[in-house]
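We now fix the convention by which a protein and its fold are recorded. The integers have meaning only within a learned vocabulary of local backbone shapes. The record below shows the convention in full.
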Amino acid sequence: MVKIVKGDLLKSDCQYIAHGVNCQGVMNSGIAKQIRNKYLIVYDRYKRYVDTYPKDNSHLLGVMLPVPVDTNRVVFNVFSQYKYGRDSSIRYVNYAALITGLENVATFVSDHAWYSTYHSFDNAIIGLPWIGCGLANGEKSVVLEILELIERNFSNIPKIEFHIYEFDG
């Protein structure tokens, strides 16, 4: 079951962190900006990846880009938005892309967990914000359903668990 945690995701002990990104090569707001500030390599790899494709980067939707930031942490850029903006009447998050991207993250983590000594084989925790629910204007109930579906589909050993971090400050 998806767990909601009060606290700062970037100060957590999660070995795996996933967050949503757009296909435009911009990480200037929300948790993406915080990740960019803390782990510049995550932004550098993301920007380089986006820049290798033509201007219409819609084919990136659903891709996940893993970036190891130290020996015990991997940050996943999940391409879940084509564009970005601040218009509250537009839903920027693409739910189909979010599902595909997070399934790819879960597959990577499940495979990686077999070789990791950082956590037990009972579960592999992926920390994330309310992905797609901030400036991307997604609905928490829809995102929660997506996460629960993926957890059910990855219930073998190691079992995938999502922990949503809500900033408490």
In short: Residues 95-113 form the longest helix (19 residues). The longest strand covers residues 73-81. The chain is about 30% helix and 25% strand.
